[in-house]
Fold:
Amino acid sequence: MTATDRPWLSSYRKGTPTDITPEFNNGLEMFQAAVKRNPNLAAIKYFDATISVAELDAQSTALAAGLLANGFQKGDRLAVYLQNIPQFLIAMLGTWKAGGVMVSVNPMNRSRELDYMLKDSGATVLLCLESLYGQVAKDVVPSTNVKLVITTSELEYQTRNDARLFKDVKRERHAGTIDMLELIAKHRGESVPAVTLLPSDVAFLTYTSGTTGVPKGARNTHGNVVFNSQAYRDWIDLSSDEVILGVAPLFHITGLIAHITISFLLPATLVLAYRFDPGVMIDTIREHRPTFTVGAITVFIALSNAPGVEPSDFASLHKIYSGGAAIAPAIADAFKARFGHQIHNIYGLTETTSPSHGVPLGAETPVDPTSGALSVGVPIFNTIVRIVGEDGQELPPGEVGEIVTEGPQVVAGYWNKPEETEKSIPNGRLHTGDVGFMDKNGWFYIVDRKKDMINASGYKVWPREVEDVLYGHPSVREAAVIGVPDEYRGESVKAFVSLKPGTTATPEEIQAFCKERMAAYKYPRQVEIVDELPKTVTGKILRRELRDTK
Structure:
């Protein structure tokens, strides 16, 4: 590939990225345009249920009317504590129509995390699954500012009740709560006052993982949301003919933008399946024939290893992007050889409202010849990215430093945390905490998180590089590398691996495989084979949990 193949590569190197101009002021305008363009389109498919754009509009308006009738005011926060179900989209739109801010809460969060997020955000309304209210929220809500609790069930809107997902799910009404569908039915047909949402207004609060302290609520504005929705559309050449597969959790910034708001913008059908289960997802792909998705690479590893999966199952899914975790070249090559489709890298953070970099659709992703890492792409439209050293000065191509990003997708700051905002996003420039470099052609490579670097006998070892070699072993399904104390070296490399179904390998064999392919200080001195590696709900492998249990 040459620079002339993709004009923004050339213009980026000259310091003038190709621009796009936002077409809407806010996310609600995007959806309202979809209602006018194609009201009969299937906005959501959820197992055997179909919800049209017009019906999504009607139900979200009714929810907004119900919120306003219960005292919700412009600027109030509504916390959404749900899995990937239609109610999530209804809640987002209903919150915006009522002039509020949605707070997305990880459904895996327990009492401590939920208590923190409700108190930090000041949410006055909680919308959650009945099961999560009974298991977690009912003991948390009394000590927060929440005045109204709305509950719903994953069994609504569909009748299949797949035992792989819903075997133990039962309907349960809780005292002091309002049922979401009953609230919608009560206020159906009511209008709500027109609301003005500025690009600078907060669309939703998304909380960081808290790996370097307490979680911080990123203030993703409507301007951020509109810009990156358009960036996805134009970067990947998406159209209203797409069918979007919702493999990423909707509470996460990838699900919020790459699934929900892009479906509003196009508009296009979004396929949901409650939560990620490889077998269920393969059946969903076979039934609904999606064309586009974004998910962690662990998602595609799991799908490719699902029992009975065939290359034909992926025939329709010709626009595949992966973000949130590193992609080893061996995995991408094996997936393309088996299923015929390229997995394109995309890179961003909660604070960049999803993408800041991406591999252009159809472009061959370059591999760094030194580390063997796949590039995460080039900066997307309107985005300036620098590599800076410890002294804060910009480094030339090829040198490793911290990635610093600025552009219309970067959040204005963190909710009620001015000091953290000034530290991490001074003058609108996001200091990502990710270490990487840019090559002479403008392609960016992530080396690792600063905190994950291993110091072995004074040599720097980046876990990513060792993991990429591990993925080249024919029996390795997933891999993670950490540093462990070593009396002689200070730290040495330890690898945790899970194996592909039907294969075998000993720790010694895996260690020997790496030793043949790496410098002596890099190969793992310890290899532990495990059934599964710990992951976030988005599919990112949790090295910190491995460090805690080493």
Observations:
- The chain has a mean pLDDT of 91.
- Residues 43 and 74 are 26 Å apart (CA to CA).
